[in-house]
Amino acid sequence: MKQFKVGILGATGAVGQKFINLLQGHPWFTIAALGASERSAGKTYAEAANWIEAVELPEDVAAMTVTDCSPASMKGVDFVFSGLDASVATELEGDLARAGIPVISNAKNYRTHKHVPLLVPEVNADHTAMINAQDFDPSGKGFIVTNPNCVAVPLVMALKPLMDAYGIEAIAVTSLQSVSGAGYPGVPSLDIMGNVIPFIGGEEPKIASEPMKLLGSLSDDHTVTEAKFPIDATATRVPTIEGHLLTVKAKFTKRPGSADEIKQVLRSWKHPLTGLNLPSSPKNALKVYDDERFPQPRKNAYNENGMQVGVGRVRMLEFFDAGFVALGHNTCRGAAGVAILNAELLVHQGFIK
Ligand code: NAP
């Protein structure tokens, strides 16, 4: 297997640090460049970053020199992962794609671009064909692929098998989002300790809109015909550290027969990564809990390296048809981990070579 040299943009941030952590010992990808702002460029990584991961900072990474995120500084890498702040991602990611370097991004900036895939590989692996219509780089080498918001990831993973089985009319979702989702330093401790904040700026529109592209179907012109159903979202911040818990209520086109039937649909989900053995692909992408006390962020968010989505409290409802809770690790499954899985799929499909 070819070894790929990767750069990380926004390497000093919360998502950048998760990339560094998850890429340790990766069988295909080796960290070759670390990019951040002018504030960090020229320093060693240990000097530039306030390391917040719950493992030791790897010594070889600590000694690397942080650069800026320009194509010149990323010269020599096969592709980059981006955990860039949205205020700078449009220009920096676009420059790299135009310079022939594939960009696998967490930032929101290109998620709605008509030829940029918004990708959760178990849900819409075929959407990578959109890359063929991108015009960042006439040679076709440079392109951009994005992953969605950290709430949209577990939401669509639970909804995809249910949509295929029953059709979806409407969804109501409330997210209980952990503090790591706000980056570092994030929410002041006096605001969040022993408290719940019933609003996260900019979050609810993304939770409502991104699943439409993810659950949409690819058209012949390499655009996506979006799914069409309303999602009413309430996004809240709670004092957990990692893992976003969602409470979901669904109105289906065809009412399921029972909660057990829904659990069976979720447990027997055959998704496009089944059997591919990609390095970051969890053996069991969706775990369905019968015990009503689970899933819980502190106990279950790190299942299968933070890449498994937990579903529990599956029950029939009166006004809606059914309800459940879903748990996804926000910086693994909802950010760096899904981006690494996206890159593995792109290698498998031959887009990164
Ligand atoms: P963060 O901790 O604030 O990190 C932001 C990163 O961007 C830092 O490395 C920072 O470098 C870099 N940066 C800022 N201005 C820059 C500039 N002018 N040029 C180059 N680099 C610059 O944020 P985060 O939580 O990691 O989030 C990163 C991105 O991922 C955001 O777009 C966010 O919306 C998205 N995301 C986050 C999560 C999550 O759970 N946290 C989940 C999904 C998606 P310096 O240290 O040098 O300032």
Explain how this protein is built.
The chain has about 350 residues and is an alpha/beta fold. The protein folds into 2 domains: about 5-150 and about 335-350, NAD(P)-binding Rossmann-like Domain (Rossmann fold), CATH 3.40.50; about 150-330, Dihydrodipicolinate Reductase, domain 2, CATH 3.30.360. It is built from 12 helices and 13 strands. It has helices at about 15-25, 45-50, 60, 85-100, 120-125, 150-165, 190, 205-215, 260-265, 295-300, 305, 330-350; strands at about 5-10, 30-35, 80, 105, 145, 170-175, 215-220, 225, 230-235, 245-250, 285-290, 310-315, 320-330. The protein has a 6-stranded mixed sheet. Strands 2-1-3-4-5 form a 5-stranded parallel sheet, with helices on both faces. Helix 1 (about 15-25) crosses helix 12. The longest helix is centred in the C-terminal third of the chain and has 18 residues, at about 330-350. The radius of gyration is 20 Å and the shape is globular. The model has no long low-confidence stretch (mean pLDDT about 95). The structure holds NADP nicotinamide-adenine-dinucleotide phosphate. NADP nicotinamide-adenine-dinucleotide phosphate (NAP) binds near residues 13, 39, 86 and 184.
